[in-house]
User: Which sequence fits this backbone?
């Protein structure tokens, strides 16, 4: 714990030194008054509230549900075959038991394979959706940054994903980014 505090203090000191040595009159990067323009946007909120993401995830959930019905049907078929096997195995010949047991095991392997295939498909689709949504958000943030001459826009999300410990609400452009995202849909 003491080591963590030591590194945190060291990090704050290094950041302070870096800020102290940032030149104030870099003409191409500064506003006319010599000040940097900084904003924050909450990436968690943007991801959560972006209408396109909500629609794409709703479509993906519908596909998950459709595929789950198929998986459940296969599972019920296997369970019924197992119950039938257990109920009637005493009256079956050795050959019938072997054949029935082999069929149940084969069906179970096919079930596992289909489940894995469906899961891989859903995972890939989710990754595709997330990538598309993040690209949209990045493009909106970039557009606002360029149009409004921001020098730096940071992620203000709470928790480990955020990079800002404190900010004034006056520099938060999250709602502006959401407006642009929803307008461009």
Assistant:
């Amino acid at each position: 714990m003491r080591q963590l505090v030591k590194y945190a203090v060291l990090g704050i000191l290094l950041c302070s030194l870096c800020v102290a040595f940032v030149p104030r009159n870099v003409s191409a990067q500064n506003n006319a008054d010599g000040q940097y323009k900084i904003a924050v946007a909450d990436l968690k909120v943007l991801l959560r509230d972006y209408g396109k993401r909500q629609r794409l995830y709703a479509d993906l959930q519908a596909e998950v549900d459709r595929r789950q019905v198929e998986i459940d049907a296969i599972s019920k078929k296997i369970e019924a075959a197992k119950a039938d096997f257990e109920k009637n195995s005493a009256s079956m010949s050795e050959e019938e038991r072997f054949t029935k047991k082999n069929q149940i095991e084969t069906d179970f392997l096919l079930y596992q394979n289909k489940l894995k295939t469906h899961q891989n498909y859903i995972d890939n689709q989710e990754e595709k959706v997330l990538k598309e949504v993040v690209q949209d958000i990045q493009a909106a943030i970039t557009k606002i940054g360029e149009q409004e001459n921001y020098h730096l826009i940071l992620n203000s999300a709470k928790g480990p994903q955020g990079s800002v410990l404190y900010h004034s609400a006056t520099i938060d452009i999250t709602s502006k980014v959401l407006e642009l995202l929803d307008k461009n849909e």
User: Anything to note?
Assistant: The helical segments are 2-20, 43-49, 51-88, 94-147, 174-183. DSSP finds five helices and two strands in the chain.
